[in-house]
Specification:
74% helix, globular, 137 residues, Leucine-rich Repeat Variant, mainly alpha
């Protein structure tokens, strides 16, 4: 299944086709992942191109499982503002107590969110504020 996801994320698509169809297909593939697929994805994700990573981050709230959460948290370390915003947007779905505890342990994420709040445009600001409200409850 990992290879199928990799091929999809590598495909050259328009933005519209990705958000209309590609992310739905990626979510379906992710729902069929087994532990080996998750391990391979975890091992490969940081070496992939930034567009591939952005597409993946957008889809990682399918099951809100620990595999998805850990991959999102690893992607936060990449120095790309758009990827960071996508990851934070996706992390808003991780509201169970275990996920919140894991996220709350990542204080560097909250520093970065608070720094970004100072300069972000209104839509991004709303996402960041919503993330903070959902995770800090």
């Amino acid at each position: 299944m990992y290879k199928e996801l990799d091929n999809l994320l590598c495909a050259d698509t328009t933005v519209d086709s990705w958000y209309d169809d590609g992310c739905v297909i990626a979510s379906e593939i992710l729902s069929d992942f087994d532990p080996r697929d998750w391990d391979e994805l975890s091992n490969q994700v940081l070496s992939k191109p930034i567009d591939w990573q952005r597409k993946l981050a957008y889809c990682l709230d399918n099951e809100c499982n620990v595999y998805e959460l850990n991959i999102l948290l690893s992607l936060l370390a990449i120095n790309d503002e758009e990827l960071f915003e996508i990851c934070i947007d996706t992390l808003r779905s991780y509201t169970d107590q275990d996920s919140k505890k894991i996220i709350l342990d990542k204080q560097e994420v909250f520093k970065r969110v608070n720094d970004l709040l100072l300069t972000a445009n209104l839509p991004v600001k709303k996402i960041l504020q919503d993330f903070l409200a959902k995770i800090n409850l």
